[in-house]
Amino acid sequence: MSIINLHLKIWRQENSKAQGRFVSYESGPVSTDMSFLEMIDVLNERLTLDGQEPVAFDHDCREGICGMCGAVVNGHAHGHKNATTLCQLHMRHFSDGDTIVIEPFRARAFKVVKDLVVDRSAFDTLIASGGYVSVNTGGAQDGNAIPISQKIADQALDASACIGCGACVASCPNASAMLFVGAKISQLALLPQGQPERAKRALDMLNTMDLLGFGNCSNERECEAACPKNISIRHIARLNREYIKAAFLSD
């Protein structure tokens, strides 16, 4: 373990209607064993003791599973480490004296609530528009009794790894949610339980995505590079095929 000191520039914004600004802080001594969120915890403890408003930020499991945390660190969603959520980013990846710029995910569909906290409920709306199956799938034993090839099972499992953090949207120059929607549509289109609503799901989720203000995909691949779960843009290709097929066959 070693100790480093950092210069921090953090986006502070009182609420969604207030004008935000970067505020500079000195981190004080930080252990390289700390996670990035623990570093902000230490800063917030000091701000609180000094009578200042602590930095608001999203977090929950801190194990890279829930998709709750997220911020742009030095221009990278979740920071510069590949396949890593912000809560799993550790301070050993920074050097003594570094300047770290921390700002919220920015997109038309993700409004800033306060400081680093953004409203990602647009993803909930997208899921409600079609990211589910309404058939009775039975218990685990019933589900496992349906024969599925290993290749299909692996592809569906890869798609299901999406944690819905929003890094794909924050990193895309068009603020597109195509990787998130593609992962959900791929997962369900590949499995037998997802077949009854397959066409309706593709149409409804794409239309809802447009209504919520997300942009379109222009093959920048920034979403794939920023995804902490390595979701492939192949799922966007499947999403496009599902949408075209559903549009041709719809009434």
Explain this structure.
By secondary structure, the protein is α+β, with helices and mostly antiparallel strands. The longest helix has 16 residues, at 234-249. The strands form three sheets. Strands 3-2-7-5-6 form a five-stranded mixed sheet. It has a two-stranded antiparallel sheet with strand order 1-4. The chain has helices spanning 36-49, 121-128, 140-144, 150-160, 167-171, 178-190, 198-211, 222-226, 234-249, and strands spanning 3-4, 7-12, 21-26, 30-31, 72-73, 76-77, 99-103, 111-114, 117-119. Helix 6 (178-190) packs antiparallel against helix 7 (198-211) and helix 6 (178-190) packs across helix 9 (234-249). The protein starts with a strand and ends with a helix. It is 36% helix and 13% strand.
Secondary-structure map:
Layout lengths: L2 E2 L2 E6 L8 E6 L3 E2 L4 H14 L22 E2 L2 E2 L21 E5 L7 E4 L2 E3 L1 H8 L11 H5 L5 H11 L6 H5 L6 H13 L7 H14 L10 H5 L7 H16 L2
Parallel strand pairs: 2-7
Antiparallel strand pairs: 1-4, 2-3, 5-6, 5-7, 8-9
Helix pairs in contact: 4-6, 6-7, 6-9, 7-9
User: Nearest-angstrom radius of gyration?
Assistant: 20 Å
Strands of the widest sheet, in order across it, are 3-2-7-5-6
| Average pLDDT rating | 95
Instruction: Describe the sheet with the most strands.
Output: 5 strands, mixed
Number of strands: 9
Proportion of β residues?
A: 5-15%
Strand pairing plus helix content: what structural class? alpha+beta
Shape: elongated
Helix content: 25-40%
**DSSP summary: helix tally:** 9
List the helices and strands in order.
Answer: EEEEHEEEEEHHHHHHHH
- Poorly predicted regions: none
